[in-house]
């Protein structure tokens, strides 16, 4: 059986493909004057938080993909004034992460790898086996995204976004990113245990028992849950340091 470390890496690759087809905005009539913009009218899809003192919108990082593939739709800056998002905005984030174009391609690549390794042998080989692996690989991430970013945060009134620290030592920022799977904010801005992460991925792992006949039972379900949570933690680490990498590495290379 493939080790959990390898599973996390592969699931991160699947995750790193989901993003921009549906990035809806909450409805509302545009204000007559730009200065009249408020926190309630700022769309989450553009990553805008409004400062009630200055009434000026403060944009979060514009990159919607890290390294061109990893979705960055749910990243916000922890240093900015907290602005809650609506249920519709939570589901827009989940849909954007799930329906990103590159995700379909990478799911196909990973399905080919799983087929070569004959993972889940009951799926068989040939076109039928490949199609079965493709559907399950993509379905895992789609269900996980919708449960952890849309359904559970809406029911539990939690915020599905990752709040990037942006400053401090690398160790402290890494701990902050990894620990984000344990801690999140409520819609009121207070800190709480990240129930959405664990319950959402728990539902995803449990549903996997219905379409993974070779990997059923409590241990296999817990393995899938651990893989899902670890994948999310790793993706948050990448989101935390991506602006630094882009500024100090990619920009430096482009100017050499």
Record the SSE blueprint.
Blueprint: H1 4-15, E1 48-50, E2 57-59, E3 65-66, E4 70-71, E5 75-77, H2 87-98, H3 101-116, H4 126-156, E6 162-164, H5 170-179, E7 183-185, E8 191-193, H6 195-211, H7 218-255
Parallel strand pairs: 5-6
Antiparallel strand pairs: 1-2, 3-4, 7-8
Helix pairs in contact: 1-3, 1-7, 2-4, 3-4, 4-6, 5-7, 6-7
Q: If you had to describe this structure to a student in words, what would you say it looks like?
A:
With 256 residues, the chain is mainly α. The protein has one domain (4-25, 63-255). It is built from seven helices and eight strands, in the order H-E-E-E-E-E-H-H-H-E-H-E-E-H-H. The strands form four sheets. It has a two-stranded antiparallel sheet with strand order 1-2. The chain has a two-stranded antiparallel sheet with strand order 3-4.
In short:
It contains seven helices and eight strands; from the N terminus they run αβββββαααβαββαα. It has helices at residues 4-15, 87-98, 101-116, 126-156, 170-179, 195-211, 218-255; strands at 48-50, 57-59, 65-66, 70-71, 75-77, 162-164, 183-185, 191-193.
- Quaternary structure of the protein: single chain
Total of helices: 7
Query: What class, by secondary structure content?
Result: mainly alpha
Largest sheet: 2 strands, antiparallel
Query: Based on CA inertia axes, which overall geometry fits?
Result: globular
Mean pLDDT: 79
- Order of SSEs, N→C? HEEEEEHHHEHEEHH
Poorly predicted spans: 12-61
- Residue share in helix: 40-55%
Total E-strand runs: 8
Provide the descriptors you would attach to this structure in a database record:
single chain, 256 residues, mainly alpha, two-stranded antiparallel sheet, two-stranded antiparallel ribbon, 53% helix
């Amino acid at each position: 059986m493939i080790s959990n470390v390898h599973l996390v890496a592969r699931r991160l690759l699947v995750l790193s493909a989901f993003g921009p087809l549906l990035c809806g905005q909450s409805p509302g009539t545009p204000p007559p004057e730009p200065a009249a913009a408020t926190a309630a009218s700022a769309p989450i899809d553009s990553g805008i938080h409004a400062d009630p003192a200055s009434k000026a919108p403060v944009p979060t990082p514009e990159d919607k993909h890290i390294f061109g593939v990893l979705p960055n739709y749910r990243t916000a800056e922890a240093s900015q004034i907290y602005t809650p998002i609506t249920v519709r905005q939570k589901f827009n984030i989940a849909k954007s992460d799930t329906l990103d174009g590159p995700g379909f391609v990478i799911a196909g690549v990973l399905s080919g790898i799983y087929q070569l390794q004959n993972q889940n042998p009951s799926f068989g080989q040939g076109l039928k086996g490949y199609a079965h692996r493709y559907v399950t690989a993509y379905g895992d991430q789609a269900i996980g995204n919708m449960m952890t970013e849309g359904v559970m945060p809406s029911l539990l009134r939690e915020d599905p976004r990752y709040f990037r620290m942006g400053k401090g030592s690398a160790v402290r920022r890494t701990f902050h990113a990894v620990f984000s799977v344990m801690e999140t904010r409520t819609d009121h801005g207070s800190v709480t245990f990240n129930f959405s992460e664990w319950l959402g991925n728990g539902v995803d792992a449990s549903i996997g028992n219905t379409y993974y006949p070779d990997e059923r039972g409590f241990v296999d379900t817990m393995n899938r849950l651990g893989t899902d949570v670890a994948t999310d933690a790793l993706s948050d680490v990448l989101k935390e340091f991506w602006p630094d990498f882009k500024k100090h590495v990619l920009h430096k290379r482009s100017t050499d």
